Amino acid sequence: MEVNKQLEKKLNIWASVVSAAVILLVVLMRSVKIDLGLDLGFLPPVHALLNTCTAIALLVSLQGIKSGNVERHRIFNFIALGLSALFLLCYVAYHFTTPETKYGGEGIVKVVYLILLLTHILSAAVIFPFILFTLIRALTNQFDRHKKMARWVYWVWLYVAITGPLCYLMLKPYYH
User: Fold this and answer.
1) Residue pLDDT, tens place only, 82-120
2) Given CA atoms 3, 9, 14, 15 in this order, what sign does their dihedral have?
3) Do 77 and 85 contact (CB within 8 A), yes or no?
4) Which segments of the chain does DSSP mark as H helices, in order?
5) Could you tell me the domains of the chain?
6) Is residue 126 pLDDT above 90, yes or no?
7) How far apart are CA 16 and CA 23, in angstroms?
């Protein structure tokens, strides 16, 4: 298959714009609150479920490519992307409309929570554009470059998908 450089250029611009917009939204949601008259307090367990399903889809995707089943790999990566996109929309909606929940634990448990939360947030922020760029390499038939990126992008994405629900479970007792 031929590499489509023109499509790659357009998709790279799109991925850069989307990544910048997401980072802006995440920064703004901490300081801007919107009253929609809706209680979105039900969303945190949904976030955890979406992240858990993303982790499962990523594991099935890895199993697919390891066994040579490229179609399964492709399908489950698209499922993981869709779940992650849905998570992001719900997460931003929740944080734009709902006051922040503070962790109330103490001692070593609080330290563990804060380490998990910090590494989760930083990893999510860093990996988001690289997930898109890895996808673009596959969509433009640059499978060697796709594979090279996916070897590390995958593990960071999986870490984010696993630590999100862990952070939720640790914070769950403090939700209103």
Assistant:
1) 999 999 999 999 999 998 899 999 999 999 999 999 999
2) positive
3) no
4) 5-31, 43-66, 70-97, 107-139, 143-171
5) 5-21+39-174 (1.20.120.80)
6) yes
7) 11
